[in-house]
Predict the 3D structure of the following.
Amino acid sequence: MTMMARDNECIADDLLERAEEIARFIFGSAAKRRRVYHLAAHSELPLFRLGDVICGRRSTLLAWIAEQEKTSVGLK
């Protein structure tokens, strides 16, 4: 397997397609897809579009969530 093919498999494994899949990853339920749309419109949730499909990367979302945790430590 070439390096390029190996990199593509990693990207495919990391890619979340559609709000339902992103909601399942973040909130544990595809039913919370509207929350994903809301966050995409009103926050800096790191999502992007491939054509008409909203997408995100697991690794990027986990890093973003970790950063949010760091900056909100004093919100108790």
Observations:
- The mean pLDDT is 87.
